[in-house]
Design goal:
The complex is a heterodimer of chains A (279) and B (320). With 279 residues, chain A is an alpha/beta fold. Helix content of chain A is 38%, strand content 12%. Chain A is globular, with a radius of gyration of 17 Å. Chain B has 320 residues and is of the alpha/beta class. Chain B has 13 helices and 14 strands. Chain B has helices at residues 15-29, 41-44, 47-52, 64-76, 87-90, 95-103, 132-137, 150-159, 208-220, 239-249, 264-275, 295-301, 306-319; strands at 12-14, 33-37, 57-59, 80-86, 110-114, 143-145, 167-170, 175-177, 192-195, 200-204, 226-230, 233-235, 252-259, 280-285. Chains A and B meet through helix 5 and helix 6 of A and helix 4 and helix 6 of B.
Chain lengths: 279, 320
């Protein structure tokens, strides 16, 4: 898929995010918009995955969303790639919906393999699935996305130590490095310090990319995949802007967990082309 | 069915050894079974499995939260992971990981927990968890099993591989009488009616089953007839077995190595209150932490000894 096509999809995904959060007057648009280009590239270009959905993900790439609060972007890319009907996005956060506030397997939504939202757990789960792929002789890749604030959870570093010890070079972790969390910038809430040095010292190969440049995303992940065989897990520190694509939401933690009202939605949608048809 | 005086033993072995033996046998039988341990391989008796299946064992170091997540991830990939550490570190320390990544996500993970309860002994209250059954049984979909001796623990360890879903398997440290059959069939959720009696229902789980056998044998000499039931599966709980027994006896005593809050007794009290109010006494720890000491000293001090069971039975008989 070429870059203009990916950009078109991303524009629709951003519309889906805004409309989902607006309709239920809750949810997390900021981080969702910031990770839209990455998830669009993953699901529409990079990953070898099957929307018919098999829980065990045998012989396909698998993606775990550890920072589960950005569920609107996850639900949009899943629906737009055929895991479930796009219309179902209008049930987000409603009673009796499969689209829970944070992703869950409990209601049987195709595309979700583990609940997430209580932070810090996704990398451990990715470790387990990476081990199962090794045991099964399956050479596909396990992708996992974490927030940057999420790296304040100790379990992340337990998991980082484990992946290096077991030489899990079939894991590619991406950190959504937007510098923001609920209470403000990371540097004020709890400084992450030398993030690159931290991962390196845990035995990981560290790459960086611009999370809003499709060429850079695709090239970096292809490069990461080419490093298989070096016996080191890979982390990509991905620079993103929270709220990307909507001018008044960009670069602030203000829209971390706040939905747009009617007027704000109209202003935001005017900035994003409807490319695949709204649900 | 045996009579109460037919229960006896010639050998003591720890329930954790039964777990190790069960895991070893499973390793030979089921290629999907994998095991993880957080730096307590020797304590959990996992060595034979590891020796025969080095590729199916993952040492995770002292990182229990990570272990639970890894187990969930292995289950996604179609494996049947057995995690091993002390009961304290298998539950309270990692409750949220179990809740989100395993129970809510309905992952086929077997949480195998040794050194549960007071009988851990000298290490003291930091390691003697008495709240684990309560925490685990509150999780929707979690099966909670507390076997009573080596043979039952071995059988349970093997049986849970065939149950698809999360299981909490609780066992202990000390050598303990082996009084159940070596070739028993373990049925999850099915109470074991050990001996027939008419005066009082006595229901026990885990190490307290043997203590209740001793209590029932002592009372039999005075002509008190005990209907003895082993509840090895605390959830799902065999209500029918309890209700049938109390219909016959009209009173009940329960016994467990756990805080009375959140344990077996409370579960049974709830059923009886709704369906068949019956005079009842509970042998359990009275909402306290443990302390260092020998297992027998601790059971005595915290009211879980044979004499304590006998005392509660006399009390409930008076209330009939």
């Amino acid at each position: 898929m070429n870059q203009p096509e990916l950009k078109n999809i991303a524009s629709q995904v951003r519309r889906d995010i805004l409309r989902q959060t607006h309709a239920c007057a809750s949810g997390h648009p900021g981080g969702s918009l910031g990770c839209t280009d990455f998830l669009t590239a993953l699901f529409f270009e990079i990953m070898d995955h099957n929307p018919a959905f098999n829980m065990d993900a045998k012989n396909e790439d698998v993606f775990f969303l550890s920072n589960g609060h950005i569920s609107p972007v996850m639900y949009s890319v899943l629906a737009r790639s055929g895991y479930f009907p796009v219309d179902e996005l209008n049930t987000f956060r409603n009673i009796n919906s499969r689209l829970q506030g944070h992703p869950a397997t409990h209601e049987g939504l195709p595309g979700i393999r583990v609940a997430s939202g209580s932070l810090g757990q996704g990398l451990s789960v990715a470790n387990g699935t990476a081990l199962s792929k090794r045991l099964n002789g399956d050479d596909k890749t396990v992708f996992v996305l974490t927030g940057d604030g999420e790296l304040q959870e100790g379990q992340i570093w337990e998991a980082a130590m484990f992946a290096a010890h077991y030489k899990l070079d079939n894991i590619i972790t991406t950190v959504d490095w937007n510098g923001q969390q609920i209470d403000g910038p990371n540097d004020q809430v709890m400084s992450l310090g030398n993030l690159e040095g931290k991962w390196e010292s845990f035995g990981w190969t560290v790459l960086k990319m611009d999370g809003h440049d499709f060429e850079d995303i695709i090239n970096t992940i292809n490069h990461a995949k080419s490093l298989r065989g070096q016996s080191k897990p890979i982390v990509i520190l991905m620079k993103t802007d929270m709220g990307k694509g909507v001018d008044f939401m960009e670069g602030t933690h203000h829209w971390h967990g706040k939905a747009p009202n009617d007027e704000q939605l109209a202003t935001a949608l005017a900035q994003l082309e409807e490319t695949l048809g709204d649900y | 069915m045996k009579t109460i005086d037919q229960y006896t033993y010639t050998e003591k072995k720890a329930t954790r050894d039964g777990f190790g033996a069960g895991l070893h046998e499973l390793g030979q039988k089921n290629p999907d079974v994998v095991a993880l341990c957080a730096d307590l391989v020797g304590s959990l008796k996992m060595n034979k499995f590891i020796d025969e299946n080095p590729d199916r064992f993952f040492q995770v170091g002292i990182a229990e939260a990570n272990m639970m997540g890894i187990a969930a991830g292995l289950a996604i990939g179609g494996k049947i992971p057995y995690t091993g550490t002390f009961a304290n570190f298998s539950t309270g320390r990692v409750y949220d990981q179990i809740r989100q990544s395993i129970a809510y996500s309905h992952k086929n993970v077997k949480i195998c927990a040794s050194h549960a309860g007071l009988t851990l002994g000298e290490d003291g209250a930091t390691h003697q968890i008495l709240e684990d059954v309560g925490m685990m049984k509150m999780l929707p979909g979690m099966v909670v099993i507390n076997p009573c001796d080596y043979n039952q623990t071995k059988a349970a360890t093997i049986a849970i591989a065939d149950h698809h879903g999360p299981v909490y398997l609780r066992f202990g440290r000390p050598g303990w009488p082996i009084f159940t059959d070596a070739d028993q069939k373990f049925e999850i959720g099915k109470a074991w009616h050990m001996s027939e009696g008419s005066d009082v229902t006595l229901v026990a789980t885990g190490h307290l089953v043997w203590i209740c056998v001793e209590a029932a044998q002592a009372l039999a000499k005075e002509g008190i007839s005990v209907d003895l039931i082993n509840i090895h599966t605390i959830k799902p709980f065999d209500e029918k077995a309890i209700l049938e027994s109390v219909t016959k006896t009209g009173c009940i005593v329960t016994a467990e190595e756990h805080n009375y809050l959140g344990g077996l007794g409370e579960a049974i009290a709830g059923v009886l209150a709704r369906k068949a109010p019956t005079p009842m006494e509970i042998v359990a720890v009275n909402d306290s932490f443990g302390e260092s000491g020998k297992p027998a000293q601790l059971l005595e001090k915290y009211g879980l000894s044979t004499n304590a069971v006998i005392k509660k039975i006399r009390r409930v008989l008076d209330r009939k």
